[in-house]
Structures are given as structure tokens and as C-alpha cells.
Amino acid sequence: MKTRFTVIKLHRRCPPGPMMSGSQLWAVDVYGRGFSLWAAGGRWRRVADLLLELKRVTGSQHCCWGIGCDHQVYLHVYPSQVPIRHQEKTYENQRWNPVDGYTDTLLPTDRWQWTDESGLNPQPLHSFVLPSANWEWEGDWYVDDESCGRESSETGGWEYAVDFPATFTKEKKWNSCVRRRRWLRYRRYKALGSWAKVPLDRARPPPEPFTDISCGGWDMSDSPEKHIYLWAVSQQGKLWFRTGIRQQNPEGTCWEPIQVPQEVAQVSAGPKDLLWVVLWDGQLLARTGINKDCPKGSSWELVQPPNQKGAVHVAVGLTVVWAVTKDNKVWFRRGVNSHNPTGSGWISIGGEMLMLSMGPNDQVWGVGSDDRTVYFRHGVTATEVTGRSWVAVSAQLDGSASTNHSSVHVQSDASVFAGEVTTPSQGSVLGCDDTDIPKPRVPKITSDSFISALVSDRSAPAHDPPSVAHPSVPEDNQMKSQESDSSVLSPSSLSDGSETPWSNVDLEEMKGSVPSSTRSSVATYPIELQHNTVVQEELPPWAWVTGGGCDISSSSHVDLFNISDPGPLSPSITPALSALDTDTRTRGAQRERDASVEKYVYAVIKEVTALVPVFRDSLYTMAVYTPERTKQRCPILLATPSQQDFNTWLSLLNESCCASRGLGEHPSKQAMWAVTCKGDVMVHEPSPSLEAPAQYLPCEHMFWRQVPAHLLCVESNSLGVVWGIAHDHTAWVYTGGSRGPSAQGNENLNQAISDVRSVYIYENQRWNPMTGYTDKGLPTDRYMWSDASGLRECTKDNTRPPSPQWTWVSDWAVDFGVPGGTDKEGWQYAADFPVTFHGYKTIKDFVRRRRWARKCKISLTGPWQKVPPIALTDVTVLPCLAQCSLEQVPVWAISEKGDVLCRLGVTTNNPSGNSWLHVGTDQPFKSICIGGGHQVWAIARDGAVFYRGSVSAHNPAGECWYHIPSPPKQTLRQVSVGRTSVYAVDENSNLWYRQGLTPSYPQGSAWELISSNVCKVSVGPLDQVWIIADKVPGYPSESSGTVCHRLGVKPMQPKGLSWDFGIGGRWEHLSVRGNSIEAQRVAPRSPMPSRTQSQVNGNAVGC
Q: Which portions of the chain have biased composition (kind: Polar residues) (predicted)?
């Protein structure tokens, strides 16, 4: 179908494009027609053989292979000034006899008259035939008179020896009984520049009809002669390898089968040693052991597809692997290299494609699933391997006729890549689901009004910068674009150079539907108007493309793609933090198409309240919280493809947020500390309004920042003494706020920090009368491999460390230290799922489980000092007011064995102390806390509550333990003591308050239930109460672990009134025991002198 319309020809001077002069792109449309696209021509050229119909093509820099609709293999070798010539040679052998001299009559034990050089294989002249019709002889056979390396015209090319086999020489001796000479003949490949059918193996039919083909391996060896390795897939799902392909023999020799455990649907080979296949069931296999000495490889490794739908296509490059799933989604495999051909995880890439193809330097080409357009992945570099956006290849078909109505010659140097392109996602370094593929459309220009508009635009006032790109927006979307541009920053609104420009950061929210494409834009250039009538054939719908022979230089400026790109968002803007404006807006990358309106999710830097690292779908992700997002329980999620990018952006955004609030590098002594389930340590700088009874600071407005560490819990006080316990029960002391001799310079602060934790999974089994305990459960049972709750499937293969920063340091092993005990094989038994498990089998136990553990380790640096050598499970520091001065700060702890310890020598200048003092107990303990007035409360492992009497500054260990009755029918697990309040949490997540505490009777009188839904509690030096809540009312899907503040706590009302829910989502620990900032009092200060600590009689007013 041909369309006639009037166009305006835009001419501009283009620098040399990034496409190499000898590179070529091949494509096949849905009708089986093959096309090629050269950089110099700029148009799609159809193959010369109009009867040839192709299904698949695969290219290299020297040739292109294809599968025809007749399932035969075709080869196209690029034209070259150097012909492809192959030398055929054979040897003529003779023996001397006394009658006739040298004749071709040989002994029965001799070699044949015509053989190869070794003499083992017969090779008569008539046995040499052309391998296919693609070759021709360059003359007849002739004798090689240079066999021995020296010129001789008298010997006739003969070489002499005593017998076969022996060393042949040119000199004839008296004992030379045999002789030979070499015959040569050359054949030349004559099918250069055309598609030729690859001959059958020795005139035999191929094993099976082929359905897919891929070539690669040409960069596997450093030798000048490049070998190409060809792989093919047959209709029966078998994999085949073509041997003998080299520069002088492009057709190869024969097909050899490769063993594959399952049926193969598609194959892709990289330029080096990577080979992946897609199986019929959607799974993927990676070939291992491929090298120049073993190009066929040795074994297969199974790779799970990116999603449950399964993979349908895979494309392999030098060190990258891309895939397309059955829902046409595009995925990138990170961590792929020669040593790890399977990679480490999948990253979702925006756009929907039918297939993908890799270029020689990992450039990506593809065919869109909806519009069947050829696309190129723009922005792929060695550091940004996923690129930034998809660019449509809109070159016209060669042979389009044109009629000039203005006597102006129509030039044909149009760009290969033109028309509408997708503006690159300016935050693509953060997000993995970038823009979708734009719908290509050719605007119909049918009147002179558009010409007038262009002329008037060209004659615009001189103050308009000519280099600024003006977006081309449809009429019905102009108003929407203006509204959108008024609320967000635009690259075109950058300063004129007087200030450091800021790029817009796209904060991508990984929730909801896939973001739609960004607004298309076409750059405006100086133009020359030509009015031509062009008869143009529409581009066909494409079915396949190969970029294996199309080399795009990643270092060149991509002018040929008509992209006005401000460049990739780079952490190089870090030095501009000094000029940070607190109103700088960070645009969100979630663009939702709702009633054709583009929606941008953004967050003002000053309104960001937390940046929390999370691990989501194998991506390096951080959750961005704002007050509104905290209320909605829906943070913005940012994802990066690599850990390096993640660390850079997390540090950059943290510094930006801290700079907008005037916060220093290290937390203050009054800071509140918290720990997430991943071990990340977060701090908040409190203000006097945080605990002000008149107007509380809402919890969702609290700003949390991360401190370098990975801990299980952390405790502090207002003197700057901060202790933490890692998952491996190692004690650590924070030195970032120290002012003593140990804190001279940052070089002494940052030390190597490591933590080891165990990851647990459960193996579940059910008993049946026939086979006993098996892994065949009921349909209503939990997964046979699950987590502790049984709601999530956790196998040994799919279970990963808590985050990518952790690495495995052991293998899976049965854990015998499970609460409740186990039998000798590690099993626990119960009547059904879920009930209480025990370590012995009874007649009523129909299910059993055992826990498997695997250790992982993390290593980083931070201002922490290790406190050896005793492993701890709990620690507490005396809370005191800011004006308090103590010679020694009391620190109590519980060892891993349950012993109670008291740390001696702890001061603000020596927060790690000197030594441990053992405090005697009758049983192991699990929780301990010291409050105002040196009140020490503890909980034993059986839930019994104890109070330590006579503890003081002069007697830091106290005298004896007093048993405190527990709440009725409840077992306590954690206790926290403030100035005059004691709170505890039981095993059923209930919060209890101890009534009747007085200086004369510090043990109190009774327990009062305050609330349920509590995981942990922390009581500060002002008796402020904060908890980690299990669930948030109204948000049942919210993960356990939310920071909550008790409102209405007053001296006369220590139990408070209600809860204020703050940031949440798997926070596990909180400490407010360093926050002693009191709100300013309205009452005037008393003229009486203040009392010293010794005059308070045990009350924690001064301490």
C-alpha cells in the first residue's frame, strides 16, 4: 500500500553518527522479506533475491545467517576486496623398481597413489568436488614446485625418501626408493554479497528442520582469524552445533547434536563465551565450560525465568543477558560474566517487545510487540548497561519515488533514526521500570499552514535560544502538558550557566501498573524548506531483527538518534549540595495514564522523612517516606540496578535531606535510635516539641536517617553513650559522638564492622499410614518448605540473604537449637499446623517440622568499636538528663548464656568501659533494663520478673534480687524502665504498666494492662513511652513493626491517653532513652538553688 502526501524536508548538518561505516542491521518483516540497513545509505534495502523468504536471521561483523521458510539455512557473506579462497591439496606417491624406475605401481603395504600428507586417507583428483554451488574453481590442478621451501624447476616438485613414511627431501639419493609431490587447486567463494543456501552435510538431509539460529563466539579467541560458532534449534527441540566455520570456510563442515536435558525453543550466543537457551516450558539454561578449546561447552545450569509466565526469548551479549517473557515484558539479568554465566537476578526494564538482539558491544535492538517497529536501546554504556530509553528506527524503505514540485533536488541523506523518540527517563539510574515504547506516528502535513508556522518560528525574536528543544505536543494534550510543566522542573528550565544546573530525579514508585511512556519530543534545528511530493511505501511490520553485525560506538555522541538528552543522571552533581535549595523538587517516576492525564509523583527534599533500604524483587531498593506517604502507608520506592549506584544515591539523598535540616554528620547525644528488620540503624534528632504536652510533633513528621551499622538492637543515653548488639551477639560501642582521646580525626572513627546472622527455613512433613512422614501434605497444609509462619514458600534454592549486601558463609544445616527442643534428627512434632511443637513424638502427632539454618555475613565500615569477648543478647544504659554529670555510666547486659553482667569504667570519654562484673543469678535471664535512680529490672527466660536492690553509683552491682509477680496468666519477655515508670511486654504482645512505684517501694504494687498489639517498648528519661507496634489499625496489609508514640503522658498521668502511629514496615527495635529534651516551661524559674543529685533521695530528677 502506497500513500501520497506532502512533507517538509528538514535538512541539518549532522556529525558522523555512532554507527560504524561497515556495520549493518538486518531485519525480517512478517511476510518473510529480508532487509538490511547501512549507516551510509540510511534506508532499508530489500535483499536482491525477491523469492527468498526468511524466518530468523543472526548476524556478525562478517556475515549473516538465516533460516528460510523452507527450514533451510542460508548465509550472506559481506562483500570484501579480499576474496575468500580455499586451497585444496593432495599428494601423488610413486615407488621405484629396477625395470620401470619410478611408477605408480606401489607395494600392497604402501599408501595409495593419491593421498593426503599423512598418507592415511586416499585423495584422488577426481574425489575433490565443490562443496556447493556457491564455490567455483580458479583453474586446474598444478604441481606445487615449492614443497620444500626452495625454488626448483628441474625436480618437477618431487620429494624423495627411503620409504613411506619418512622424511622427504628435494635431493635424490642412491637409496631413495619412494617419492611424492603435492598438487594444488584453489576454489573461490563466489556468493559474496548475496544470500546462498548452505549445502547439506555430504548431500544428506539435515537431521531435522531448523526453527531458530544464533551465531557468536568470534571474540572468544585473540587470534587474527576469527572463528564463528553457529547454533541452531530444530523443530523437535534439539540443539545443534555447526563445526568448521572459519574465515576461509564460511559455510562450515557439518552439524553436531548437543545434549540438552529438555526441549529447546530458542538459542542465543554471545560474541564471547556466553550461551543461553529458552526451554519449551519457559525456563532458561546457561551453558558453562565454553572456551576456545571447547567451544561447545560442557554442562548446563538452570536459570529461573523472571516471572511466573516464563521466558519466550533471550538475547546474549558480551557480559549481559536480556530476556522477554510471555507477557512481552523486558528483563535484564545482572551479574552475568564469564565466571558466572547464570548471573544473580532479574531487573525489569520498561517497554514491551517481541524479541531482542544484542550488538557487538552489548547494544540492544528489539521489535515492539504492539507496533512491530524496530527499536534501539539508547544510553547503553559500560557503566549504565541497561540504557535509558527505547528509540524507534524510522528509516524509510529504499526505492521510494519522489516528485519535486519546486525544482529543488530531493536529498537522500536523511537520518536513519528520526521521528518521534522516547525522552530518556532522567532518573533511569534509579528505576528499572522505565518508559514504555512510544507509538510511532507520521504526522500528515497537508496544508501550507504548517509551513507558515515553521517560517514564523524561524523568524522568532533573537532572545529565544535556538538550541532549546520545543516539544511537539498534540493539540488535545497541550493544556495538559502546560499544567504538568507548571508543577515540576523541566530540563529546559535550567539556568543559563550562572548556577550549577540540577537534573530532575525521577523517583520511581514500583506500584500499580507499568508506567506509560514519557512525552515525546522532537528537537528543532535550523531548517531549509523544500516542498516535495513523495510517494512513500509504508514500513512493513517487522518480525525479527539482528544487531550482531551493527556496531554502535557507546563513546560517540548520539546525534543520529535526534535525542535532546541532558545526559544520564549522574552522582556527579554531589558537589552542588552546597547550593541546595530546600524547595528543590524530586520528581516521581510513576506516570499513570488515567483519562489521558500524566500524573507525576514528587517529593520535596525538605519533606522527606526517611530513606529506608529494602530488598524487593532482587533489586537494590530504598523506600522514600514523606508525612503524607507515611499516613497512607505507601512509600515511594526507588530501585537501582547495582549496589554501587544504590550506595551512591542513598548517600546523596541522605546528605541532601540532612543539609536541608541543618543536621551534622553524626547524631547528637539526644538522638533516638531504631533498628529495622534488615539490621539498618536509623536515628532521629528530637526537638522540644516532640514531647510537648500542648502540641506534639506528629510521628509522621519525624525525620529518620541511617547510620552505618548492622545491628540487632541499640541503646543510648543523653551523655552520648551508645551500645549495640549485632546478630552474632557481638557488642559494639558508637564512637561517632565521642570527644575523648579515641575520637581524634575521622580516621580513628571508621572501623571495619562485620555481622553474621542466620537465615531460617522450615521443612514440614505430614504422616500418612502407608509411607509414614512424607513431604506430601494436604491441600490446606502449609508449604512443605516455608518460613516460620508457613504462609510463604521458602526453599533452599529460592531463599536469599536479607539484602544483597549480605553473602553466604555456610551451607544449609539442621538447627538443633530450636525452642521447645528436637529429636536426634532435628524434628519437632505436633498434632497439626499450626500448633505448639515439641521435641518428641507422640501417638497424636500427625505433622512434624525441622528448622534449617544458613549463615550470612556483612562487612562495612563505620564509627563503631568492638567490645570483646563476651557475646551479649541484651544491653541497657542508664538514662539521665542532659545536665547530669556522672563519673561512670552504669551499663548492664545479659550474655548469650543468660548471665547478668555489669560494665565497669564506662564514661563519656571511654564509652566501651574497662571490664565486666558478673552479677549472680539463680537462672538465666533474657531481658534487663536500668532506669532513673539506678532501678534495675530484669526478666528470666521462664518469664519471671526480678528487681535488683541496693544498686547505686557506689555499689554498681547491687545486693540481691527481689522476685516480682508477673501479670496473671502472662509471661513477660521485655521490660523498660524510665524515671518513675516501668513498662513490660508479654509473649502475647500486651503492654503492661507497673503501678505503685515510689522511692520507698520501688518494686511497685500491681500490673495494669495498657494496650495490646505491642512488640517492644522503650521508656525514656522523661518517662516518655514509645513502642514498636505489631499492626496499624486500618491497614491490615502493613508489615509488622511500626514506630508509635504514647500521647498524653504527664507526671500525674504516666499511662498516657492514646497512640500516634509513625513510620512503619518491619521496624524491630527503638530506643528513646537518650532523649531528655524537655519542652520549655511557662512557669518562671524558682529563685531557690537547685538541689544536687544526692539530695533527691533516689529520685531520678538529677539523673
A: 1089-1103
Give me the sign of the Cα torsion angle 446, 452, 453, 458.
Answer: positive
Could you count the other beta carbons within 10 Å of the beta carbon of residue 331?
21
Q: What is the spatial distance between Cα 857 and Cα 809, in angstroms, rounded to a whole number? A: 6
Report d(CA 334, CA 639) in Å as an integer. 13
pLDDT per residue over 327-344, tens digit each? 999 999 988 988 889 998
Specify whether the CB–CB gap between 1070 and 681 falls below 8 A: no
Q: Is 90 helix (H, G, I), strand (E, B) or coil?
A: strand
User: Going by C-beta distance under 8 Å and a sequence separation of 6 or more, which residues neighbour residue 1000?
Assistant: none
Whole-model pTM over 0.70: no
Report the pLDDT averaged over residues 224-237. 84
**Could you tell me which residues come within 8 angstroms of residue 482 by beta carbon, excluding any fewer than 6 positions away?**
none
Q: Which of the four pLDDT bands, split at 50, 70 and 90, describes residue 987?
A: very high
Amino acid of residue 722? V
CB 318 within 8 A of CB 336: no
- Section 245-253 average pLDDT: 82
Res 131 pLDDT > 90: no
In the prediction, which pLDDT does 93 show? 93
Report helix, strand or coil for 579.
helix
Q: Name the strand (E) or helix (H) holding 1010.
A: strand 1006-1011
Residues 6 or more apart in contact with residue 1080 via CB below 8 angstroms = 688
Please tell me the predicted confidence (pLDDT) of residue 1095: 37
Closest to 318 in 3D by CA, of 270, 275, 383, 285: 270
**Whole-angstrom distance, CA of residue 104 vs CA of residue 87:** 25
**Nearest-angstrom CA–CA distance, 875 and 878:** 10
Confidence of residue 359 (pLDDT cuts 50, 70, 90): confident
User: Given phi > 0 = left and psi -120 to 50 = alpha, else beta, which region is 101?
Assistant: left
Q: What is the 3-state secondary structure (H, E, C) of 815-872?
A: CCCCCCCCCCCCEEEECCCCCCCECCCCCCCCEEEEEEEEEEEEEEEECEEEECCCCE
Structure-block grid coordinates of residue 889: 555510666
Higher pLDDT, 835 or 118: 118
Q: Which of 635, 636, 638, 634 is nearest to 619 (CA)?
A: 638
Query: Residue 523's Cα: distance from chain center in Å?
Result: 33
Q: Which region, left, alpha or beta, applies to residue 296 given φ > 0 means left and ψ of -120 to 50 means alpha?
A: alpha
For 1009-1024, b where at least 16 C-beta lie within 10 A, e where not — what string? ebbebbbbbbbbbbbb
